[in-house]
Structure formats: structure tokens, C-alpha cells
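2024-03-11 09:14:02 DEBUG pipeline.ingest accepted 1 chain
2024-03-11 09:14:02 DEBUG pipeline.ingest length=131
2024-03-11 09:14:03 DEBUG pipeline.predict start
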Amino acid sequence: MTNLEVVKNLQALYNVKKKVLPAKLSYAIGRNISILEPLYNTYFEERQKIHKQYCKLNEKGELETDKTGVEIPIDANNKKLLETEMEALVSIDNSDVTIHKVSESVLDLCDLEKFNALTPEELLGLSFMFE
């Protein structure tokens, strides 16, 4: 699982975390959040270091952003260096990560009235943790 996949998978887990789901599925979601959060935190810290190296900082030492919230590279050369470093960071493989998996059959229980249904988008986001 690359760092980019860690970010996407963690977001998918957060999107369904508060839903009422079958115990096995809910447990797997919580467990996988616990597994992926430390990886995300390390990724984010490194991302910040890279951006502070190649992007403009304000007088408080914080990253300057444009109107859309995107950090502003110092110049064209730094933009290329930023892109290269970020590509390297997002593509790092975390092959030592063991995701807690559950059988897809647990999804059949989501059809019961006492549980919240999952949207197709949510199911796709969680597909990394199904056996």
C-alpha cells in the first residue's frame, strides 16, 4: 500500500466511521483507522517538510497559499523539485502494513433495518479491506 493509498483509504474509513454497521465491519473500520493513522501522520509530517522547503512562507513561517488553498512554490525550479519530491513521497510502499480484513458477506447484514446502508462510493472506498 503506497502513501497515496493510505491517504485515500483512511479518508474512506473516516467517511463511514460514524455509521451504524454490523459489529465485524465496524470493528474492522476502527481497527484499520488505528493501523493507518500513524502512517498518515508520518506522511503528513514529511509532506509539510517538503512544502516548507520548496514553497513560500509568510512572516510567521507558515506556508503561503493561493485563493484555492494550494501552497505557492517559490519559483518554477522549486515547483519542479516539489513535484519530484511529492511524487517520491506518495509512491513510498508500506508493504509491512497488515490491513484487518473482513468477508464481503458481512455486507449482507447492512441491508437490515437496524444498520445504515453503504453507498456504492463507500463500498468502493472500503474494498481494500474485504477478503
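2024-03-11 09:14:41 DEBUG pipeline.report Residues 66 and 86 are 19 Å apart (CA to CA).
2024-03-11 09:14:41 DEBUG pipeline.predict end
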